[in-house]
Amino acid sequence: MRPRRQIATGTIALLPVWAVVVVAYLGTIAWTVLISFTGSRTLPVYDFVGFAQYERLFGTSRWIVSIGNIATFGVLFIGCCLIIGFLLAVALDQKVRAEGALRTIYLYPYSMSFIVTGLVWQWIMNPELGLQRSLRDAGFESFTFDWAVNRDMAIYAVAVAGIWQASGLVMAILLAGLRGIDQDLWKATKVDGIPTWRVYLSIVLPLLKPMIVTAVVLLSVAVVKAYDLVVALTRGGPGIASEVPAKFVMDNLFERSNIGLATAASTVMLVTVLTALVPWLYAEYFRGAKGHG
Amino acid sequence: MLTLARTLLSGAALAALVSTAAAEPKAEVIHWWTSGGESAAVKVFADAFTKAGGTWVDSAVAGGENARSAAINRVIGGNPPTAMQFNTGKQFDDIVAQSLVNDVEDVATEGKWRDFLPKPLLDAVTRDGKIYAIPVNVHGQNWIFTSTKAFETAGVKAPTSLDELVPALDALKAAGITPIAHGGQPWQDGIMFNALLLAKGGQDLYRRVYAEKDAEAVRSDDFRAVAELYGTLRGYVDAGSPGRNWNDATAMLIQGTGGVQFMGDWAKGEVKAAGLTPGKEVGCFIPGNDYMIGGDVFVLARTDDPDQKAAQALLARTMLSPETQVGFSLIKGSVPVRPDVDTAAFDSCGQTGLGLLKDETRQIGNPEMLSSADLVGSVRDVITEYWNSPDMTTDAFVDQFVEALEVAG
Predict the structure, then answer these.
(1) pLDDT tens for each residue of B99-142
(2) B64 to chain A: nearest residue by CA?
């Protein structure tokens, strides 16, 4: 056991941090949840209306569409980023020439903000300006690529732009992981005559787990806060076809002066994230505790 | 060295003394007029205020929502600006209800505002019998602009009424020109629908829908006829329309690649910026009988400081003076809020607007003036969904419209 004084000093040193966490994070979260039970419009007021805002929220087709979209976007974005990022990392790990240059090129999109990414892809996918127009002008009359303005495809257009932007990041993280793998392991598998794809799938991938978890966490955060990409690329349109929850919150908070509904929507987002996060955290800590036995 | 410092210090002290002694009314104004034409227009206000002996402190914030939330945050935070911009309508209801605003009653009575303000505008700035905002301009929102060049190419006369619209669009389509230059963003889908609602459905139906939230009005045959006409117009836009900005659509009219555009009179700003004359290269008409008006107002933040109150009064007087009104609106593309001014300098579209403003029976506020931002937004979601879903039935549209009216209230 450590001396009491040392513990006290540590506690005092951490006090400001705790104050920030409790007031700035937990406090504002609690306040947001509280406001979601009121009928607040432009200004927060405390006229409690029970679950009325939540009832309205789930009766609004735009919110339902937003939830569906974020699920589609999230699965595609995280899944494709992981697969593409992994394949790129493996390809670069084959001791290719000009690796540094290629690595920079693949990582480059990530240095752009979502706003720029969205704008670039909006131009590429606009039938009157982009790829479709160029190819049709070049003689391919029947070529069609109009995802950004097609309401069935708009959310996939958003996903494509997001994947293009973030795959390089996954590549960089996994490449670092691959470099950390002991060369002796490769020699051993060569001796045993195991095919390379099998080594990647059954030995390397499990070893990369911490890197993959890091990548998934980073990508998930991007999914939850997806807003700027959608605003720049489709503005939630055509119609409401590519709306996302964060945009619903922003629009109601500012444009529509409807703080009550906006906080209800953000509370639902928070609860959803927690539901996904808590079992995972529990599993991690539970396993960790067992491991240290 | 010491002397130098002393000189500098005393100089600074003197400067401080002079600035306190002068005690000019100083007004900090938050607004969102940041584009080229807009900031030129707001400069008219600033210059007039300076000329009247005040000091104008300009706080421009890009984007209406951003400017409004910045203003409201400062009011709540206890550091209010002197005046802040809102759109004419219900946007400032809540801050009036929370007593965060000074009324303009004294200046309004002295300047006889009630005698000249158009009625929808007067109603929009009055709460409980008191005037709480300075209306500075009137924008018409139900204009249809026509490209003279496009109609010449197609060899037909540009339409000047709603009845002539659809045949004219067919002619343009046959000539291979995009009939409607439409910016497919929700608010622009809304502008088009509301213009049709007022033109085809009439002032009474429009009022019942937006002011009285009457579900029966939405279920009526007249409303369904409007919805069906609106649905028909989907066939006249080009594939690139979703997401297009309004000014890009106006540019299509200027170039002659697009035929007509449903837009507010701010589109004239683009026409003028291209060196053309509204009413000539780009024509304009109001479909139907009535003029749908909106505009901008300035709201004065609550203060008991006599200096600030003096600045607020001076601001109100300056903004509504006839010369400032004309100077501002000529640049902004709007029309003055008072009809008793010299209007010779306005283009033919502006003249039409001014004429309509003199006839009390032919004007009505835009949806933002008649109902809450929440309701306007919810209804707009339904309108834009209908516009972008050719397979959505009129019945489904009517049902969702009624539902939006009920939940948003």
Answers:
(1) 999 999 999 999 999 999 988 899 899 999 999 999 999 999 99
(2) A255
By C-alpha distance, which of B405, B396, B400, B348 is closest to B211?
B405
Task: Name B292's bridge partners.
Answer: B364
Q: Which helix (H) or strand (E) holds B285?
A: strand B282-285
Task: Evaluate whether ipTM surpasses 0.90.
Answer: no
Residue B93 with chain A: CB contacts under 8 Å? 42
CATH of domain A64-259: 1.10.3720.10
The beta-carbon neighbor of A240 closest among B238, B239, B381 is B381
Assigned superfamily of B143-292+365-408: Periplasmic binding protein-like II (3.40.190.10)
Decide the pairing of beta strands B282-285 and B178-180. unpaired
**For residue range A229-241, what is the model confidence (pLDDT) as tens digits?**
999 998 887 888 9
pLDDT of A248 strictly over 80:
yes
Q: What is the pLDDT of residue B385?
A: 92
Of A239, A252, A261, the CB nearest to B384: A239
Chain A residues in contact with B407 (beta carbon < 8 A): 56, 59-60
CB < 8 Å to B84, chain A:
none
* Residue of B381, B386, B389 to mutate, testing the A interface (most A Cβ within 10 Å of its Cβ): B381
Dihedral sign from CA coordinates of B132, B92, B135, B198: negative
Q: pLDDT (tens digit, 9 = 90+) per residue, B249-274?
A: 999 999 999 999 999 988 888 888 88
Half-sphere exposure of B194 (CA within 13 A, CB side): 31
Residue of A nearest to B69 (CA): A254
C-alpha–C-alpha distance, residues A92 and A84, integer Å: 12
What superfamily in CATH does domain B26-140+294-363 come from? Periplasmic binding protein-like II (3.40.190.10)
Q: Where are the domains of chain A?
A: 64-259
